Amino acid sequence: MWVYLERDGDKRLKDVGLELLGKARELAQKLGNSEVGGVIVAGSEEMAREAIYHGADKVVIIDNPDLKTYTPMEYAEAIAQVVQKYKPEIFLIGATKRGRELAAYIANTLTTGITADCTALEVDPKTRDLLQIRPTFGGTQLATIRTPQRRPQMASVRPGVFPKPQRDTSRTGEIIVERVEIPTRRTRLVSIEKRIERDIADLPPVESADVVVAGGRGLGSAEGFKLLIDLAKLLNGTVGASLMAVRAGWAPHTRQIGQTGKTIRPRLYIAVGISGAIQHLMGITEAKTIVAINPDPHAPIMENADYAVVGDYKQILPALIEELRRLKNQR
Amino acid sequence: MKIVVFTKAAVPLSSAIRIDPKTGTLIREGVPLTANVWDRDAVEFALKLRDRYGGEVIALSMAPPSGIPALESLIGMGVDRAILASDRAFAGADTWATAHVLAKTIEKFIPDYDLIVTGEETIDSTTAHIGAQTASWLGVPYVYYVYDAEIKGRTIVVRRFLEDEGVDEVYEVEMPAVVSVLKGSQVPREISLSRKLAARERIQTISNKELGLDPECVGLRGSPTVVAGMAPAVYPPRKKIVLQGESGEVARKLVEALKQEGIL
Ligand SMILES: Cc1cc2nc3c(=O)[nH]c(=O)nc-3n(C[C@H](O)[C@H](O)[C@H](O)COP(=O)(O)OP(=O)(O)OC[C@H]3O[C@@H](n4cnc5c(N)ncnc54)[C@H](O)[C@@H]3O)c2cc1C
Ligand SMILES: Cc1cc2nc3c(=O)[nH]c(=O)nc-3n(C[C@H](O)[C@H](O)[C@H](O)COP(=O)(O)OP(=O)(O)OC[C@H]3O[C@@H](n4cnc5c(N)ncnc54)[C@H](O)[C@@H]3O)c2cc1C
Question: Which intervals of the chain are annotated as region Disordered (chain A) (predicted)?
Answer without folding.
Answer: 149-169
